[in-house]
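Example record

Each entry pairs one chain with its bound ligand, 3-phosphoglyceric acid.
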Amino acid sequence: MDKQNGIRHILFQHEVIPVVTFSTFDQIEHTVNQLLKREIKCIEITLRNEVSRKAVSLVSEKYGHQISVGVGTVINLDDIQFCELNNVDFIVSPGSPSYLLKYLNNTSIPFLPGVSTINDIMNAMEYGCDTLKFFPAELSGGVNMLKQFNGLFNRIKFCPTGGVNEFNYQDYLSLENVISVGGSWIIKEKK
Ligand code: 3PG
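Structure tokens for the complex follow.
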């Protein structure tokens, strides 16, 4: 297994990853059912409020066999241990400080660390990472910045999120170094 426990393979299976921050309990099952109806079999649930952890537990317990459950906004060891206890499918972090990469290198869950600069990428590479979240993508230079990254580090592949939407996601997906994209716009779309 590669250093990131197969995260690249997961991204290849899911071209668009809905990033969801649940703020009430009653929307959880409805949202997951909407995704499943649209044949979107992946969700990233962020850890950003008091509902988050219960949402992760519920979705992985009840829908884990139908949908790949990722946990986002993972920022410390406690969050990683929570993910391990809940057998989630992948971990996403907004940044990649060395302390977090050290913890992540000890988990068996696939993980996707966030970067927004050349220094971040070089630091993540030092820890053996080659598949990264580019966040916040639009604010950090968007498509043009990713082209620049490809010129410098053509081994590194990205999942841009943050400001990606229905108007620009195809531009991102057309890039050589982009495997998939993530964002909150996906569950707002009508279908
Ligand atoms: C996030 O972490 O908030 C996601 O990347 C979603 O960003 P978006 O709301 O701009 O899609």
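Residues 19, 46, 72, 135, 161-164, 182-185 surround 3-phosphoglyceric acid (CB under 6 Å).
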